[in-house]
Write a structure and sequence with these properties.
The chain is an alpha+beta fold. 66% of the residues lie in helices and 7% in strands. β3 and β4 form a beta hairpin. InterPro entries: SecD/SecF_arch_bac, SecD/SecF_bac, SecD/SecF_CS, SecD_SecF_C, SecD_SecF_C_bact, SecF_bac.
Length: 374
């Protein structure tokens, strides 16, 4: 954990970092691929709309039913003539959902179902939803989502600028598309709880995005007065400086939501928990991804289309090219200097130690004194 904290501090100070913005085309491609998969899932399988949106009835049996889920599903389809969804709840009761039936026929269906399940008709709870009320719920959900989007764009345009508002809107649409596509592929039922979960994850996604945007706005106040960093460089630094914060908040949020999804919905069989927790789990992960890999790189792309940012990038690149050229020249001069100081390979090696002079061949031959005769 100490190493993780040290890494977060180094990321915040800019000592280390990953080039998110420089590799944005890779992330754009990944996002487009995921989005296309989600759209294909929506087009091919469609959403499994709950009875709140299409009308129908929900029957709940008493606790500790001995009837299996498969048998109850068969009884419900035989009694209604429509497809039925049966879930076994944690207390042993059965939740039988039949969509698309007329409310006028609900009493007859209830009596037939109670007889097949061998329970008293009065002990079989029934909740009826008319199709017109379901349409109203669907329209209200779309209206709420549209109003939320408009308010987000207006707020970001005022607090930051319109480019950041556009980038945040693209990220939100990206998160909604992925979440609804996962719902279509998995086959989970869409209920009002799902809509609540979607609106909640949009708030989380917006929070992560605004944190990065706030850091970016602070670091780019006087960016045109220097020639060291481009806008993309500063955007990348903003992502890295807030990276650990985004990861920590996302992980902390995903842990309890994962408990709701895998324990509450999977083991306990609570249907409403599945509706809310899946949208929260997928949406939180998609929101963290989009704020780092989509929103901020898209802002950098839009900003560097401005004439001022184009000129700044040109100056920064020119200065970097000049610095690189000077560094190469300095390295070349250093190499030449080292080469001049080294001895040549063909030169004779230096003599170390005393030198022995060769004696003359005929000097003092035959004379002990070694002196010449006069």
């Amino acid at each position: 954990m100490s190493k993780l904290g040290s890494l977060g501090a180094r990321l915040h100070r800019g000592e280390v970092g990953y080039d998110f913005v420089g590799k944005r085309k890779i992330w754009y491609g990944v996002s487009i691929l995921i989005t296309i998969t989600a759209i294909l899932g929506l087009a091919v399988r469609g959403l499994n709309m709950g009875i709140e949106f299409q009308g129908g009835a929900v029957f709940t049996t008493p606790k500790h039913m001995s009837t299996s889920v498969a048998s109850a599903e068969s009884f419900a389809e035989e009694a209604s003539g429509h497809d039925a969804i049966v879930q076994k709840l944690g207390d042993g009761s059965l939740r039988i959902q039949i969509a698309g039936i007329d409310t006028d026929k609900s009493d007859a269906i209830k009596d037939k179902l109670a007889k097949d399940l061998n329970v008293n008709s009065e002990n079989l709870a029934a909740d009826l939803v008319g199709p017109s009320w379901g349409d109203q719920i669907a329209n209200k959900a779309w209206q709420g989502l549209g109003i939320f989007m408009v308010l987000v764009v207006i707020y970001l345009a005022i607090a930051f600028e319109w480019r950041m508002a556009v980038a945040a809107l693209v990220a939100l649409i990206h998160d909604i598309t992925i979440t609804t596509g996962i719902y279509a592929l998995v086959g989970f039922e869409v209920t009002p709880g799902t809509v609540i979960g979607l609106l909640t994850i949009l708030g989380y996604s917006l929070y992560d995005t605004v944190v990065v945007f706030d850091s970016l706005k602070e670091q780019t106040k006087d960016i045109t007065k220097q020639t060291r960093w481009t806008y993309s460089d500063v955007a990348n630094r903003s992502i890295n400086s807030t990276l650990m914060r985004s990861i920590n908040t996302t992980v902390v949020a995903l842990l309890p939501v994962g408990g709701l999804l895998f324990i509450g919905g999977g083991l306990l069989g609570a249907g409403m928990l599945n509706d809310i927790s899946l949208s929260l789990f997928v949406g939180l992960a998609a929101g963290a991804y989009s704020s780092i890999f989509i929103a901020t790189p898209l802002v950098a792309d839009l900003k560097e289309r401005e004439p001022q940012m184009k000129a700044l990038k040109k100056r920064v690149l020119a200065k970097r090219a000049q610095a690189a050229s000077e560094e190469e020249q300095a390295e070349a001069r250093g190499a030449d200097l080292v080469h001049d100081e080294e001895p040549e390979d063909d030169a004779a090696p230096a003599v170390v130690g005393p030198r022995n002079q060769p004696a003359s061949r005929n000097r003092g031959r035959g004379r002990p004194s070694g002196k010449r005769a006069r």
